[in-house]
Write a structure and sequence with these properties.
The chain has one domain. The protein is built from twelve helices and no strands. It is mostly helical. InterPro entries: L-PG_synthase/AglD (IPR022791). It is found in: Cell membrane. Its main location: membrane.
C-alpha cells in the first residue's frame, strides 16, 4: 500500500521536514546572539542534522544529539559547552508554548483526563525553571564544568527579559510545529485520506510523547507501535495505519538518519564526536 502513495505529497512532506530544520537553526542562532555569541547558520544547520542522526542511533531521546550539538559549536564557533547547553535548554523551554497549544488542540479526541496530572507536572516544572532561571543556569554550567565570565552570565540571565527575542523564538517554534502537523497531513493525503487538522494535531502530540518515553535508539519499535495503535484506535484501517506510519518514519527517521550521517562524515563530525567521547 505504501507504493500507492502520491509522490507529490511525499516530496512536500520531505520539504516541510527540512524547512523545519532550517527554522531550528535560525532559532538557535538568535538565542546564541542573545547571550553574546554567534555562529554561521549553515554550521548550526549541519550540527542539527548530525544531531538528528545521533539521536536516532543512541538510546533514549536526545541522548547523543544534544551533546554533539554542543561539541560542534564549541569546535566550529568557539562557544563554551555550558553556554551552548543553556541556549539549547532555553530553546526547549520556549518550545513548550506551541507544544502546549498543540496539546490542547488534540485533547478534544481523548476520552479520559489521565494525561492531565502529567501535563500539570510538566508545566509546573517549566514554571519553576523559569522562576529560578539564574540558579538553573549556574547549575547547568557547573554540571558541564564550563567557566564563563560574569558578563556572559549576565547575558544568559537576561534572556528571559529579552521580549523581542522570546516572541520571535516562540513564533519560530510555532512554525516548526505547524510544519510538523502539515507534514503528517501531507502523508495522510498521499494515501487519499483527508483527516481533520485537530486529529492530525493529536497524532503529532502522540508522536512526540512516544518519542519521549522511548528507550530504544530513535524510538524504533515503540514509536511505530504507538502510532499504529493510535491511528487504529481512532478508526483508521490497520493496513492504512501501517502505511501512514511507515511513510512518516521513512521521512522523519530513515531519510533523516541518512542525511545526518552524510553530514557527519562530510563535515568532520566524526572527529568531533570522538573528541567528545574521549572527554
Amino acid at each position: 500500500m505504501v507504493s500507492a502513495a502520491s509522490l507529490r505529497y511525499l516530496f512536500l512532506a520531505f520539504l516541510t521536514y527540512y524547512v523545519s530544520v532550517v527554522i531550528y537553526g535560525i532559532r538557535w542562532k538568535l538565542v546564541l546572539r542573545g547571550v553574546g555569541r554567534d555562529a554561521p547558520l549553515w554550521e548550526l544547520v549541519k550540527a542539527i542534522l548530525a544531531s538528528i542522526f545521533m539521536n536516532n542511533v543512541t538510546p533514549m531521546s536526545r541522548s547523543g544529539g544534544e551533546l554533539l550539538r554542543m561539541a560542534w559549536v564549541s569546535k566550529r564557533a568557539n562557544i563554551p559547552a555550558g553556554v551552548s547547553a543553556v541556549s539549547i535548554i532555553y530553546e526547549r523551554i520556549l518550545e513548550t508554548i506551541p507544544v502546549f497549544a498543540l496539546f490542547l488542540l488534540g485533547m478534544s479526541y481523548f476520552s479520559s483526563d489521565e494525561p492531565l496530572p502529567f501535563l500539570l507536572f510538566v508545566v509546573g516544572g517549566i514554571a519553576l525553571i523559569w522562576i529560578k532561571w539564574d540558579a538553573f543556569v549556574r547549575l547547568s554550567l557547573r554540571l558541564f564544568r564550563t567557566p564563563i565570565t560574569e558578563e556572559e552570565m549576565d547575558r544568559i540571565s537576561s534572556l528571559r527579559g529579552m521580549h523581542n527575542l522570546n516572541i520571535i523564538a516562540i513564533a519560530l517554534s510555532s512554525a516548526v510545529w505547524l510544519l510538523d502537523v502539515a507534514r503528517l497531513k501531507l502523508i495522510t493525503l498521499a494515501f487519499g485520506l483527508n483527516l481533520t487538522w485537530s486529529f492530525i494535531a493529536l497524532i503529532s502530540i502522540a508522536n512526540l510523547l512516544f518519542g519521549l518515553v522511548a528507550f530504544t535508539p530513535g524510538g524504533v519499535g515503540i514509536i511505530e507501535g504507538g502510532l499504529i495503535g493510535t491511528l487504529t484506535y481512532f478508526g483508521i484501517p490497520t493496513a492504512l495505519a501501517v502505511s501512514i506510519t511507515l511513510l512518516e518514519r521513512f521521512v522523519s527517521y530513515v531519510a533523516s538518519s541518512i542525511v545526518g550521517f552524510a553530514v557527519l562524515l562530510s563535515s568532520g563530525g566524526v572527529e568531533i564526536w570522538k573528541a567528545l567521547k574521549s572527554q
